[in-house]
Amino acid sequence: MSDSARSEPSSRPADPVTEAETRPNTQSEYRFFADIMLGSLARWLRILGYDTAYDNRISDEELVRRCREEERIALTRDRRLVQRRSLHRAILVHSDRLGEQLRQVLAEIGQFPAPERLFRRCLHCNLPLEPADPRVVEVSVPPYVLKTQPRFLSCPACSRVYWAGTHRVRVLQRLREWWPESPGPVEDHRPAESC
User: What is the mean pLDDT of residues 125-142?
Assistant: First the structure.
C-alpha cells in the first residue's frame, strides 16, 4: 500500500496490516466515504459500482466517526484529516483532477473499472439499483424513452429511474480516456440515464 493509503500515518507507530485487511476479495467490499472536497469523485465511484458515502454537511469528526462505524475508507485531500489517530483507513487524494483522482483511488486498492459493476448504484442515494417494470416507471420517464428502452432500474430510496441512454455513452467514453491501457469498461449493458 502506498504512502497515501495506510491504516495509520507514518508519524506514529503503525500496527502491522495484513493483505486481507487492505485488499478485500471483491469490488463490492470496498466502502468509501468522500469528504466535502471530493463530491465529483464520490459520484464517479458510484458510477463504477463502489459503495461511496458523501455528505457535504458533516464535520470532519462526523466523517471519521462514520468511517469507523461503517468500516469505510476515508477519501480526502486534507493531510490533517489523514493524520488523525481515530481514522483507521484513508486515502490522501493528491490531484484536483477527477480522472487522476479515480486512477489513484483504484490503484491504491489494486483494481481497474469493472464493466459488470458499472451503473449499479444510485448516483444520489448510493443504494444498489433494482430492476423496474416499465409499466411501473412509465410516469417517471419520457414517452420516447419508454418506447425505446427495454430495461429500467430504479432506486429503492429516492425512486429515481435509470436506463441505458446517451449519458452512459459519455461515461464510457471518459473512462476509456482515463484508462486507455485497460481492457476494462469498453461496453456495458446496464441502464445509466436518470430521469
Answer: 95
